[in-house]
C-alpha cells in the first residue's frame, strides 16, 4: 500500500471532476492518507483462493419484458433542467473551437 | 383521545378507523408539534402542511364511506430526504439538488400512499447519506431530542429525531452501513434494516447500490413491523428486489417470543472500545433474554475485524460511480456556465460547489480505490473480505437463530466532537457494517440509559437473509420485558422540549 500525495489528490480531483482549491488539496491529501492507512489492514487477509463478492444476492441479468410503457413526458423530463433550448437540454460547449 | 403526539402508530390508526379521532386531527397535532419544537431539533428539511392535511382528509373520507383501510391508515410519517416524492423538494441533504422536485414517486412513497399513511415532509440527513451524525447535511445539523447539544446519529438522524421529539410516530430511513440502526440506538427508538432486496430501492438516491436498503423506523417494535409490511415486497422496478413472500413480521412482533430461540453473542462486537454503560445495559439485556427462555451462546466471527476497512473501500467505490450522475446537465445545480467554459469545466465547478467535504472525500477515496494499479489491492481485496464476512455469518447462523451485539459503541456524542476526524466518525458503524456487507437484516431497539450519561443505548439483533421475522420475534420479546420492568417505553423518559 502506498501513501497518497498532494499531486495524487489533484489527479483524483481531475478524474472525479472536482475543481479542488489549494487548501482542499492539502487537507484531503492528509485525510485520505490517514483513511487509506487505516483500511490497508484488509491486505493482511491472504485471499488468493477466496472469490470476490460484488453483491449480496446472486442474481444475473434481470430483465423485464420488452414492452412499451408510459414514461415521463418531454415537459416533465426537462422541467428540472438548469437550461433548455428548443425542447432539449442546453449544455455548455462540448468540443473545442479549433 | 388525549396527547395525540405521544400515541403509538397502531393505537392512532385504530382510533382513526373507529372514528374516535379524525386523521385530520392527528395530522394537525403533529404539524403543531413540528411548529413548536423543530426550531430546536431541526429534524425536518421540508414540511408540506397542506399536502399532509389533504392526505388526512382523504383518509377520513374513506373511513366515513366504510372503505376497508390498512393498519396504519391516517398515521403521519417523516420521509428521509433521500427518497423521491413527486413534486416535493428532494435534496438528499445536498446543495447540488437544492430546489429539485422529482417528477416521480419512489416505490416506498407509492406504497406509503397505498397504505394511506400521511407523509408530513422530508427529514434531514447527512449529505447523500454519508455520515453518522447528520452534521454533514448541507442544511445544518439535526439535534438529539435527549440532549440538544448531541448528535442524533446518522445518516438518518432527522427520521430518528422526529420520532424521539414526538413530531411523527413513523419514519422511513435508509441503511447502507447503519444509517437506520445507529440513529435509532442514540435516540431511544426502533429501526430495522431489512434484508437487502426486501424493500425496493427504486427512487432512492443511490449511495452504494450493493449495500443500500430502505427500512422502517418507529417508537415500538410492533409499529416498526406494521410499517415494514407496508413498504416491503417485490418490485419489478428494482432489479435487485427479491421476488419472494415477505416474512410475516407483524405476526412475529405480536408473538414476541424467544422461548427455545438460540441467540448468538458476537464475540468480536463488544468489550474493548465499547462505552461501559453500553456494555452494562447490553449484558442486562442478554440476561433478560435468557430469563425469557432463550439460549444465549457466544459465537466468533473473526473476519468482522476487517469489515470496517472493506466497507470504507467498497462504499466510496460505488458512491464515486453513483454520484457521477450529478454533472449539472439535466437537473440540479449548474455553476460556471458563462458561455466560455466548456462542459468539463462546468461539471468540475458545479461538483466542487455542490458537494460538501465528506462527499468529496469519499468520491476521491472511491476514485482512488477503483483506479488502475490500485484496483486489486483495494477494491478487489475488499470484495474478498466481503466473502469472508458472509461466510462468518453463514457459519454462525448454523449454530444460532439470531446474532446480537450493541448497535453502536457509544451513546450520542457531542455535536462537533468528531466532525473533522473521519476515522473517529467511521468507527461508530463498526457493529452495524457487517450486516450490510452480507446483505442480511437487522434491528436496533432501546435497552435503557447508560448510567454515566443518561443517554439511550441500542441493542442490535441480526437474522439470516429473508428471516426478518426473527428480528421482530426477539425484539418484541425484549421490548415487552423491558416495558414491564420500567412500566413504560424508554422514550417516555425523553426530556420535554
Plain-language structure description:
- The complex is a heterodimer of chains A (98) and B (497).
- Chain A is mainly α and 98 residues long.
- Chain A has helices spanning 6-15, 22-39, 74-78; strands at residues 84-85, 88-89.
- In chain A, strands 1-2 form a two-stranded antiparallel ribbon.
- In chain A, β1 (84-85) and β2 form a beta hairpin.
- In chain A, α1 packs across α2 (22-39).
- In chain A, 19% of the residues are buried.
- With 497 residues, chain B is α/β, with parallel strands linked by helices.
- Helices cover 40% and strands 12% of the residues of chain B.
- Chain B has helices at 9-17, 23-41, 49-65, 107-114, 157-164, 181-187, 221-231, 249-255, 276-291, 307-322, 343-354, 357-370, 376-399, 422-426, 433-438, 469-486; strands at residues 44-47, 76-80, 118-123, 170-174, 190-193, 214-218, 262-266, 295-299, 402-406, 441-449, 456-463.
- In chain B, α10 crosses α12 and α10 (307-322) packs across α13.
- The model of chain B has no long low-confidence stretch (mean pLDDT 97).
- Classes of the chains: A mainly alpha (98), B alpha/beta (497).
- At the A-B interface, α1 and α2 of A face α10, α11, α12, α13 and α14 of B.
Amino acid at each position: 500500500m502506498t501513501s497518497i500525495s498532494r499531486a495524487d489528490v489533484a489527479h483524483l480531483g481531475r478524474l472525479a471532476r472536482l475543481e479542488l482549491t489549494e487548501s482542499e488539496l492539502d487537507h484531503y491529501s492528509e485525510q485520505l492518507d490517514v483513511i487509506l492507512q487505516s483500511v490497508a489492514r484488509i491486505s493482511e487477509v491472504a485471499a488468493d483462493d477466496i472469490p470476490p463478492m460484488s453483491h449480496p444476492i446472486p442474481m444475473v441479468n434481470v430483465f423485464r419484458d420488452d414492452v412499451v410503457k408510459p414514461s415521463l413526458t418531454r415537459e416533465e423530463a426537462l422541467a428540472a433542467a438548469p437550461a433548455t433550448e428548443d425542447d432539449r437540454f442546453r449544455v455548455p460547449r462540448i468540443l473545442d473551437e479549433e | 383521545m388525549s396527547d395525540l403526539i405521544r400515541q403509538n402508530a397502531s393505537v392512532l390508526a385504530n382510533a382513526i378507523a373507529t372514528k374516535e379521532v379524525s386523521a385530520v386531527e392527528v395530522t394537525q397535532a403533529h404539524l403543531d408539534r413540528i411548529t413548536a419544537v423543530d426550531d430546536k431539533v431541526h429534524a425536518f428539511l421540508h414540511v408540506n402542511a397542506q399536502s399532509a392535511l389533504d392526505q388526512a382528509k382523504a383518509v377520513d373520507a374513506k373511513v366515513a364511506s366504510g372503505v376497508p383501510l390498512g393498519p396504519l391508515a391516517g398515521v403521519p410519517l417523516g420521509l428521509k430526504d433521500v427518497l423521491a416524492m413527486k413534486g416535493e423538494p428532494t435534496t438528499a441533504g445536498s446543495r447540488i439538488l437544492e430546489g429539485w422536485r422529482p417528477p416521480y414517486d419512489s416505490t416506498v412513497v407509492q406504497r406509503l400512499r397505498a397504505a394511506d399513511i400521511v407523509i408530513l415532509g422530508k427529514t434531514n440527513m447527512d449529505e447523500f447519506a454519508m455520515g453518522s451524525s447528520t452534521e454533514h447535511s448541507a442544511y445544518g445539523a439535526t439535534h438529539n431530542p435527549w440532549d440538544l447539544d448531541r448528535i442524533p446519529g446518522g445518516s438518518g438522524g432527522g427520521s430518528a429525531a422526529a420520532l424521539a421529539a414526538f413530531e411523527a410516530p413513523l419514519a422511513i430511513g435508509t441503511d447502507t452501513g447503519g444509517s437506520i440502526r445507529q440513529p435509532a440506538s442514540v435516540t431511544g427508538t426502533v429501526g430495522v434494516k431489512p434484508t437487502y432486496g426486501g424493500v425496493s430501492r427504486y427512487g432512492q438516491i443511490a449511495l452504494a447500490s450493493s449495500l443500500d436498503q430502505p427500512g422502517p423506523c418507529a417508537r415500538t417494535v410492533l409499529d416498526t413491523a406494521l410499517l415494514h409490511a407496508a413498504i416491503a415486497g417485490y418490485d419489478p422496478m428494482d432489479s435487485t428486489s427479491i421476488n419472494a413472500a415477505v416474512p410475516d413480521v407483524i405476526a412475529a412482533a405480536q408473538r414476541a417470543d424467544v422461548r427455545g430461540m438460540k441467540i448468538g453473542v458476537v464475540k468480536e462486537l463488544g468489550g474493548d472500545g465499547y462505552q461501559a454503560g453500553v456494555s452494562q445495559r447490553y449484558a442486562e439485556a442478554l440476561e433478560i433474554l435468557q430469563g425469557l427462555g432463550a439460549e444465549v451462546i457466544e459465537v466468533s466471527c473473526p473476519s468482522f475485524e476487517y469489515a470496517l476497512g472493506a466497507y470504507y473501500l467498497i462504499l466510496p467505490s460505488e458512491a464515486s460511480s453513483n454520484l457521477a450522475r450529478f454533472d449539472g446537465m439535466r437537473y440540479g445545480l449548474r455553476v460556471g456556465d458563462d458561455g466560455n467554459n466548456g462542459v468539463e469545466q462546468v461539471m468540475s465547478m458545479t461538483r466542487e460547489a455542490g458537494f460538501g467535504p465528506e462527499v468529496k472525500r469519499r468520491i476521491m477515496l472511491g476514485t482512488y480505490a477503483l483506479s488502475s494499479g490500485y484496483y486489486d489491492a483495494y477494491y478487489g481485496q475488499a470484495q474478498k473480505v466481503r466473502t469472508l464476512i458472509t461466510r462468518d455469518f453463514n457459519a454462525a447462523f448454523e449454530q444460532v437463530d439470531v446474532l446480537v451485539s450493541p448497535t453502536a459503541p457509544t451513546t450520542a456524542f457531542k455535536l462537533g466532537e468528531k466532525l473533522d476526524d473521519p476515522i473517529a466518525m467511521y468507527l461508530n458503524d463498526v457493529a452495524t457494517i457487517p450486516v450490510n456487507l452480507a446483505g442480511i437484516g437487522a434491528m436496533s431497539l432501546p435497552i435503557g440509559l447508560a448510567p454515566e450519561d443518561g443517554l439511550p443505548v441500542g441493542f442490535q439483533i441480526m437474522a439470516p437473509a429473508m428471516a426478518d421475522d426473527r428480528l421482530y420475534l426477539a425484539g418484541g420479546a425484549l421490548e415487552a420485558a423491558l416495558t414491564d420492568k420500567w412500566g413504560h417505553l424508554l422514550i417516555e423518559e425523553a426530556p420535554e422540549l
